[in-house]
Backbone:
């Protein structure tokens, strides 16, 4: 095996001090630049400022609405069927409008079971469910609170103002 | 002793302790904020007093202490309870007592009959007290490591012991060289001697007379207080937290604060021996006292202007950053502190104006004022130097990686010890010649030259490669 060895330095290189001074120069440079504000802070102040997730990031689900305000969902159960974690529970019902065949009376997603695979989005024939909310923080006090219902799913906006 | 002397003892005790115990939390703050700035983070800025006063993150220091005090104090089963409880006490006790010999100002001469030195402890031994106390500090670490009944603690304690013992020798030798240089073991006399001028313009600070001694001392100081790059005793990758792994609550808090107190004390001793202590360059105490009438308006006015500038800056900070940011009382925090600074500005201005008026009118200042003014200036200068040095400790910590254990031992025994011995020898020889301290700065040149000759001609080339970094591979291994 051939190994590139670092040769021990000669002269000033053989003392630690010169490189220590160089390193100190780098760090004090960072400090001064941040103090005078010419170098932006590299981190986000989390709860107030949140990271914009990249496009295609699968976050919390949301249900899309028709222009009338009704859910686009037709309660075809494709998503519930394809879901590998069996976390989607839909109850279908008759819609008063005769032109609409079915609609979900309830649409629950158990976020604790969800594996965020995105299969439900792929399976949906009418583009009613998406995972583009950009919400990646799930925290609550009770298990029941992690089951999101139809109203909340319909309320959740997309992270992007102009979703594709 | 008269009652005034007792009062003076209490006063300087309180002053010394106040400086140590205020610089210590400030150093913790510097550490957190400094590391953040070095790494491009904003640093701690959440904790707030009464939900309003965040003081740029300073409230975190208080919050940390409250947290540590209110946490449960767990003593694991199987520990030696006596030594387990004794260890943090020793560790915290040592830096407090060591700091007592550090003069924070020159002797204050209030009248012909009353004068008080400004170091709490007046010993004929002087810096020998420092040797005595720092060598005791190893006991705290050993007790903590052994009494915890934990492998990690024990390993940390053993490492720390070996390290403290190794670095004590070059440190002591560097200090002995300083004693030779200034011909005294008294810290205050040493600082006074540093006020003289080298070649007529440079103050004879230790760092100018003994640059090599300074490097030796500060390197050993890093090792003595178990700080990066020598913090093997708490190498978290290997030893969890080293000797204080088993400690919790305020017992851990004592270790934590003792670390910073030791840092401040080392810094204070470095300032005293190498950075001129309380000396304001080119302005000895006698001059400060004699010219108090002309100097006071300048100094007090200058301090006032600094406060005024801070006040103005905070108003700008409010306008640019916090106005309407949260929509509650927090928005106005900069304005509160701005008002406080403005009050300080007005008070300083009034004081400076009063002194100026008195001098202008040809009257004499009250006799107690000039010495107190000199002491105030010196205490400020000392604290400023101390804070700078504390920043240097922080700065080095967030720059350098940790040494490997054998590298620490190599550096201590193979580099620092011979260098400090040589430095001592050279200092002794140079101090014998008639010009005394004036030619001392040639010592590092001579040292470096001799080192070069040594490495170039006297050490065989193979031996120059440190054994630990030699990797035997390939043909060499099979040969």
Residues:
């Amino acid at each position: 095996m051939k190994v590139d060895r670092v040769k021990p330095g000669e002269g000033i290189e053989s003392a630690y001090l010169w490189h220590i001074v160089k390193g100190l120069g780098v760090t004090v440079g960072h400090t001064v630049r941040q103090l005078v504000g010419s170098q932006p802070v590299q981190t986000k102040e989390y709860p107030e400022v949140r990271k914009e997730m990249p496009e295609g990031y699968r976050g919390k689900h949301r249900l899309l609405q028709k222009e009338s305000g009704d859910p686009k969902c037709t309660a075809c159960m494709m998503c519930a069927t394809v879901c590998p974690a069996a976390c989607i529970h839909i109850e279908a019902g008759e819609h008063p409008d005769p032109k609409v065949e079915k609609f979900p009376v309830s649409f629950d997603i158990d976020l604790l079971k969800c594996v965020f695979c995105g299969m439900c989005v792929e399976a949906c024939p009418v583009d009613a469910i998406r995972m583009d909310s950009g919400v990646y923080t799930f925290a609550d006090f009770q298990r029941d609170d992690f089951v999101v219902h139809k109203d909340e799913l319909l309320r959740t906006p997309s992270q992007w103002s102009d979703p594709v | 002793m008269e009652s005034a002397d007792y009062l003076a003892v209490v006063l300087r005790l309180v002053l010394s302790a106040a400086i140590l115990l205020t610089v210590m939390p400030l150093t913790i703050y510097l550490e957190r904020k400094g590391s953040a700035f070095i790494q491009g983070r904003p640093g701690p800025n959440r904790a707030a007093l009464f939900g309003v006063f965040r003081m740029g993150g300073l409230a975190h220091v208080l919050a940390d202490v409250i947290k540590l005090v209110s946490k449960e104090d767990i003593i694991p089963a199987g520990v030696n309870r006596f030594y387990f409880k004794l260890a943090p006490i020793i560790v915290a006790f040592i830096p407090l007592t060591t700091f007592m010999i550090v003069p924070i100002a020159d002797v204050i001469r209030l009248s012909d009959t009353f004068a008080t030195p400004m170091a709490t402890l007046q010993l004929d031994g002087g810096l020998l007290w420092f040797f005595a106390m720092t060598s005791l500090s190893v006991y705290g670490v050993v007790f903590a490591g052994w009494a915890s009944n934990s492998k990690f603690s024990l390993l940390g304690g053993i490492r720390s012991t070996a390290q403290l013992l190794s670095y004590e020798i070059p440190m002591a030798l560097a200090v002995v060289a300083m004693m030779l240089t200034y011909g005294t073991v008294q810290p205050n006399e040493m600082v006074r001697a540093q006020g003289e001028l080298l070649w007529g313009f440079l103050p004879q600070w230790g760092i100018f007379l003994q640059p090599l001694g300074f490097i030796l001392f500060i390197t050993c100081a890093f090792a003595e207080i178990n700080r990066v790059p020598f913090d093997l005793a708490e190498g978290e990758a290997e030893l969890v937290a080293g000797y204080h792994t088993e400690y919790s609550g305020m017992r851990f808090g004592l270790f934590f604060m003792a670390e910073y107190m030791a840092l401040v004390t080392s810094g204070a001793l470095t300032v005293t021996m190498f950075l001129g202590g309380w000396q304001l360059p080119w302005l000895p105490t006698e001059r400060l006292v004699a010219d108090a009438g002309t100097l006071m308006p300048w100094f007090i006015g200058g301090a006032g202007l600094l406060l005024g500038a801070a006040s103005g800056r905070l108003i700008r900070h409010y306008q640019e950053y916090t106005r309407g940011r949260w929509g509650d009382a927090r928005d106005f925090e900069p304005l509160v502190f701005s008002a406080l600074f403005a009050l300080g500005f007005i008070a300083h201005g009034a004081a400076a104006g009063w002194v100026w008026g008195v001098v202008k009118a040809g009257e004499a200042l009250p006799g107690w004022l000039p010495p107190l003014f000199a002491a105030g200036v010196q205490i400020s200068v000392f604290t400023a130097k101390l804070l700078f040095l504390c920043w240097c400790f922080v700065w080095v910590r967030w720059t350098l990686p940790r040494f490997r254990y054998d590298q620490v031992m190599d550096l201590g025994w193979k580099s620092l010890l011979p260098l400090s011995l040589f430095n001592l020898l050279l200092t002794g020889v140079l101090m014998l010649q008639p010009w005394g301290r004036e030619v001392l700065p040639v010592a590092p040149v001579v040292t470096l030259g001799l080192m070069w000759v040594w490495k170039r001609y006297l050490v065989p080339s193979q031996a120059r490669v440190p054994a630990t970094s030699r990797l035997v591979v390939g043909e060499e291994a099979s040969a």
In short: Chain B has two domains: 3-282+389-464, 290-365. Chain B has a mean pLDDT of 83. The radius of gyration of chain B is 25 Å. Residues 290-365 of chain B form one domain.
